[in-house]
Every structure is written in C-alpha cells, then in structure tokens.
Design goal:
- The complex is a heterodimer of chains A (124) and B (111).
- With 124 residues, chain A is mainly beta.
- Chain A is built from no helices and eleven strands.
- In chain A, strands 2, 4, 5, 6, 9, 10 and 11 form a seven-stranded mixed beta sheet that branches. In chain A, strands 1-3-8-7 form a four-stranded antiparallel beta sheet, with no helix packed on it.
- In chain A, strand 5 and strand 6 form a beta hairpin.
- Chain B starts with 8 loop residues before the first strand and ends with a strand.
- By secondary structure, chain B is mainly beta.
- In chain B, strands 1, 3, 4, 7, 8 and 9 form a six-stranded mixed beta sheet that branches. In chain B, strands 2-6-5 form a three-stranded antiparallel beta sheet, with no helix packed on it.
- Chain B has no helices and nine strands.
- Classes of the chains: A mainly beta (124), B mainly beta (111).
Chain lengths: 124, 111
C-alpha cells in the first residue's frame, strides 16, 4: 500500500533553514510527480510546490518562490523540500502528496495520497 | 491567486443532506473541470473524496457527490452520518503558473 512519511520538521529561528524529507513506498516513485502542501495552525491548505517524476520541472507558489527548493532522489524514493530564509508565516504542517497518474506534468487534477505531515515552527 | 470561497460552517442532522459550495473564478474553477474535494479530521491528513468535479475514488461512500456550474463547484453529502463531521476543502487546478488553489475550508457539524 502507498505510504508517504514526512520528517525533518522542528523549530527554527526566522531567517533560518530546514530540509524536509518524504519517504515513499508502495508505488513506483520514479514514475509519479510529487507535491508539497502546507497548513498553518488552524488555517486552510496551501499548495507549495511540485516536481515532475523525473525532476526535470519544478513549480512553486509565489509565497515561497526563491526561498524554497523542491527536489527528489528517485534512487532513494525520497522527496525533499529545502526551506531557506524562513519566516513566521511559514509555520505550518507540511504534507507531501502524490499525483494520481504516472508521468503527469503537474496538471493531474488532484492528490490521491498524502503523508501525515511534519510540523515546522518558525519562531525566535 | 486568492483562495476559493467556501462557507465557514455547514450543519445537519443525521440522515439529512447538506451541500458545500466552492466559488472560484474563470481562471480556476470556471476554466477547468479539475475540482477535487478533501475531508480532514482533526489532526489527520486530508483524504481525497471527489476528483475531476464528480468522480469518486474507490472506497469513498456514494453518499458523497460533486458537481459544478460555472465558477462554483459543490459537494453534497447525503444521509449524513456522525463520521462525516470534519473539515472539507475544495481544490482547483488553476493553470501552469498558479497550479493549485484550495478553498477556505468548511467545518461540517452533525447535530
């Protein structure tokens, strides 16, 4: 069965950096595009970033563009999110989620499986 | 890109039907038949309930149905049950520059 397990969250000071990981299993990771979606405490969901199945294209929400970098290691079945210049408003639970079909360019329409999330707190 | 607009809360008694609206613009909901709906219980990850406007994933009860008219999508829950009490979010593909926009979320309460 599909499993997505995020890790790497924690408390970081404003301006600091953090790298999140998402370990995938139960499907052919190298064939699927992957997303990061976040949810601030008590707030709604916000799409953050997408990476194509082969890592050739990456897209970001305006709110994180230039500060966050999505990447993947298909040999390790792992998705990453490098977060730099963190701000208080980046405090959220970060979920990884997968495309429902292989070889999508990001417009697969929805996210069929989600991880349980990892909490990032940006505070001094 | 602004979030899609949903009512903050909707409630109903067991067995009743409720409908949650999700209003976007001609750049997202109105342009693509790619609206999805997610159920989220407290402290849990979102769960896909409806995709491409009206399709149900395997394992999701047929009490859940989706539709769209113009810039507004809707999720209907019929035969409301206690386990349906949760937050619900719509989401629409919004093109290759914005990608995805979520709704503001609706808390469903079973009275």
């Amino acid at each position: 069965q599909v499993q997505l397990v995020e890790s790497g969250g924690g408390v970081v000071q404003p301006g600091g950096s953090l790298r999140l990981s998402c370990a995938a299993s139960g499907f052919t990771f190298s064939s699927y595009g992957m997303h990061w979606v976040r949810q601030a405490p008590g707030k709604g969901l916000e799409w953050v970033a997408f990476i194509r199945y082969d890592g050739s294209n990456k897209y970001y929400a305006d709110s994180v563009k230039g500060r966050f970098t999505i990447s993947r290691d298909n040999s390790k079945n792992t998705l990453y999110l490098q977060m730099n210049s963190l701000r208080a408003e980046d405090t959220a639970v970060y979920y990884c989620a997968k495309d429902p079909l292989p070889y999508c360019g990001g417009d697969c329409s929805h996210f069929d499986y989600w991880g349980q999330g990892t909490l990032v707190t940006v505070s001094s | 890109q602004s979030a899609l607009t949903q009512p903050a809360s909707v409630s109903g008694s067991p067995g009743q039907s409720i409908t949650i609206s999700c209003t976007g613009t001609s750049s997202d909901v109105g342009s693509y038949n790619l609206v999805s709906w997610y159920q989220q219980h407290p402290g849990k990850a979102p769960k896909l309930m409806i995709y491409e406007g009206s399709k149900r994933p395997s394992g999701v009860s047929n009490r859940f149905s989706g539709s769209k008219s113009g810039n507004t999508a809707s999720l209907t829950i019929s035969g409301l049950q206690a386990e349906d009490e949760a937050d619900y979010y719509c989401c629409s593909y919004a093109g290759s520059s914005t990608f995805y926009v979520f709704g503001t979320g609706t808390k469903v309460t079973v009275l």
